[in-house]
Description:
Layout: H1 12-24, E1 73-77, E2 80-83, E3 143-144, E4 148-149, H2 166-172, E5 182-183, E6 189-194, H3 199-210, H4 216-224, E7 233-238, E8 245-249, H5 250-253, E9 267-270, E10 273-278, H6 285-297, H7 311-317, H8 321-328, H9 354-370, H10 386-390, H11 399-411, H12 426-433, H13 436-445, H14 448-451, H15 463-479, H16 485-507, H17 520-565, H18 571-577, H19 616-623, H20 631-634, H21 644-660, H22 668-672, E11 674-678, E12 681-685, E13 691-693, E14 697-699, H23 701-713, E15 739-741
Parallel strand pairs: 5-10
Antiparallel strand pairs: 1-2, 3-8, 4-6, 6-7, 7-8, 9-10, 11-12, 13-14, 13-15
Amino acid sequence: xxxxxxxxxxxxxxxxxxxxxxxxxxxxxxxxxxxxxxxxxxxxxxxxxxxxxxxxxxxxxxxxxxxxxxxxxxxxxxxxxxxxxxxxxxxxxxxxxxxxxxxxxxxxxxxxxxxxxxxxxxxxxxxxxxxxxxxxxxxxxxxxxxxxxxxxxxxxxxxxxxxxxxxxxxxxxxxxxxxxxxxxxxxxxxxxxxxxxxxxxxxxxxxxxxxxxxxxxxxxxxxxxxxxxxxxxxxxxxxxxxxxxxxxxxxxxxxxxxxxxxxxxxxxxxxxxxxxxxxxxxxxxxxxxxxxxxxxxxxxxxxxxxxxxxxxxxxxxxxxxxxxxxxxxxxxxxxxxxxxxxxxxxxxxxxxxxxxxxxxxxxxxxxxxxxxxxxxxxxxxxxxxxxxxxxxxxxxxxxxxxxxxxxxxxxxxxxxxxxxxxxxxxxxxxxxxxxxxxxxxxxxxxxxxxxxxxxxxxxxxxxxxxxxxxxxxxxxxxxxxxxxxxxxxxxxxxxxxxxxxxxxxxxxxxxxxxxxxxxxxxxxxxxxxxxxxxxxxxxxxxxxxxxxxxxxxxxxxxxxxxxxxxxxxxxxxxxxxxxxxxxxxxxxxxxxxxxxxxxxxxxxxxxxxxxxxxxxxxxxxxxxxxxxxxxxxxxxxxxxxxxxxxxxxxxxxxxxxxxxxxxxxxxxxxxxxxxxxxxxxxxxxxxxxxxxxxxxxxxxxxxxxxxxxxxxxxxxxxxxxxxxxxxxxxxxxxxxxxxxxx
Length: 742
């Protein structure tokens, strides 16, 4: 049985750390930031209390390394090791994109969280808008709750006024609204202004929002002749809602969102929540840039706003290269301390396309080229880095994009093991919130010691322990009859994400034995992890076969090509090309010929083309000369070598691939096995048997893998009964010291 985890009193230290994490910014991200302390201003002040809430992400994606659990290998179809009952496969399982979406109850809410009761207003000296957890979410911009001039703004800026005709046509352009988004055109967003804003300034803002400005001179006249303020802030709130507003500088409102409403860039407050806002589009890019340039020339601050509302971050989220380039070309642009490398905030139902992801990566690379220290900057208040911020990225982005983005940060100096002020690494944070796409990317880059790393003052608080504690806490609240429906919906969204993240950690080598076991709560959390480990073990055979098929795919493709190329070849031509090659040699000697059958002439004497012969066996052997079996070392492993089961499985996989690609194998059919007709009955032909116990009992790869799984499950109470992956459990015990390669 597994050794008990280290004992440590009760949960006091863990709970204290979690509370500190909540107070300091460790909660999930918000669409708004506060990077400076905001003070309440009475009367004509625009800023009152900033209301903070939490959200959950509603989107669930299954990691690419978790395929279907059915693994019983029985036949060869189209050159692939095939599972019984699976679709016909020509090549290895393709990696899942990682951005599949599921509609959840919280679809309209940023990051999938359900609204919670806002915290009590903080005194001015405390800094309004301090997030409810440490460094996990960006600093928050002011959310205005009072001091708004109702005589200037008016509800629904898109409802009246403005020019007709072509301008209205421009408003009507674009894709339909995604779930949770709102449009100014449909009178569902109010735009108002701080008290004291002049009529001219409000007109200027509404003209830009509506895209009714026809040229830069018209805007210049409003500023110079009518006294409009180019730095006026617009306050956005969903019509009919109460509470604060989302503030946005005029420069940011000029920028067109070019993502077809798949990545938000402008937000509005919506009661205790936020919603993305769709603005009309400018007639063309030239007019957009002309308006932005005119504002800059008339004194608009290109660094205005806070957090996601800053012009540079709006341009990034909008995938607007032209606006981004214009801002980057300004001598006063400020990048440091603006978290420009942070991924855009999204709704859980948003679906960025590959084109938009490519644009974002291009923009991030330009930022790094301008200042490579942007990849390593830290938040002054919490000590968090871009990798900590990435740990809060919900699974709306493809796994490939996350890999490229995190790779860009690490290549430019980001420390994947860096800690914030509480000692949490990016992996601790992603384990706490269950964003498994980022967890998978981090785990692929971390050694086992860092995957099982605790805190300096609490060694048992590994990422796996953090995830188990979160799963336990969420499960307890979900089962509590006093938990409200909104909270239940939020927990129902997060719990599956946490479970998936636990499986990612276990596949990467997270050690259950390191989890504390001293208290009842510790034991309960450990028991919550075991079913997830059973899932990992049940899926491991499928993962192994997918990896083997991927490693052998180049040889299969080469063999297919050679089969075609050898159509008109002769034995002599093949012998001339491969002097030591005998295509007639078989790995298994053929049965003796009946007495009345004359033996075939030696192949060296055969001058006939191979056109009428099956060249697959010859092609397979020739193709083996062009394949590097070590490809497994460069591909993702189903389980890491840090565990005993991982070492056994990975060693067996490597041996199988080397044997399959050797000259001792006559063809792919011998590798995959299948069935054959013997005396009118279908008889199973085993896979390539390249393993032997004590030199005589031959084993297939799947038998070796299953034995390793059963031995691993036996280390934990109750786990063997959960192993049910379509393979017979009657796999004889193997003395691993006696296992050899046949």
